[in-house]
Amino acid sequence: MPQVHLSPEVIARIINGGQRAIIYPIANDKFRVGKSISVREPWIMVDNRVIYRADKTNWVGHDWKPSIHMREEMIRLHLTPHYMEQVRMSKLTDEEIIKLGYKDRLIMEREWNLSLTKKKRPILGAKFDPLIWYMEFDIIVLDKQ
Fold first, then answer.
1. Helix, strand, coil shares, percent, the chain, to 5
2. Distance CA 32, CA 138 (A)
3. What Cα–Cα distance (Å) separates residue 12 from each residue in 18, 50, 86, 112, 131?
4. Is residue 130 a contact partner of residue 89, using CB atoms and an 8 Å limit?
């Protein structure tokens, strides 16, 4: 099953219904309409329970585990794309940007840049107008508590 790593802010917006689409670098060509995508996210174990960073904004000082280390059985969020396209970031419409959970393009581009490692910013940064996946999806949230 294809996987994506999303920031806690994006995950919280998806779960709360404020975001109905994501953008993701083109590097992954395993995405397909109707094929479920697992979402990995930062987490910690507390009293033998998984705590997801997207659910807890006030857990300062904890040693959050990066999403890359999340085991399959801990994944609670799955997205099933019902529309997707490859597009240059500059070609996203205002309507698509709103579905991504942003009020405007500048805020979207700022969050995109912050989501990239310093090594990837010179290649995939917004000012380089990267080719990306734009995906609108249905959501499945599994109760892992």
1. 30, 30, 40
2. 13
3. 8, 16, 25, 16, 25
4. yes
62: which residues sit within 8 A by CB, 6+ positions away? 44
Length of the chain in residues, anyone? 145
3-state secondary structure of 128: helix
Number of alpha carbons in the 13 Å side-chain half-sphere of residue 66: 4
3-class DSSP assignment, residue 56: coil
pTM of the predicted model as reported, rounded to 2 decimal places? 0.84
> What is the identity of the amino acid at 80?
T
Per-residue pLDDT of the chain (145 residues; tens, 9 = 90+): 889 989 888 999 999 888 999 999 887 678 999 999 999 999 998 888 888 999 876 666 678 899 999 999 999 999 999 999 999 999 999 999 999 999 999 999 999 999 888 999 999 999 999 999 999 999 887 765 5
Question: Rounded CA gap, 123 and 52, in Å?
Answer: 30
Give the C-alpha separation, 92 to 139, whole Å.
22
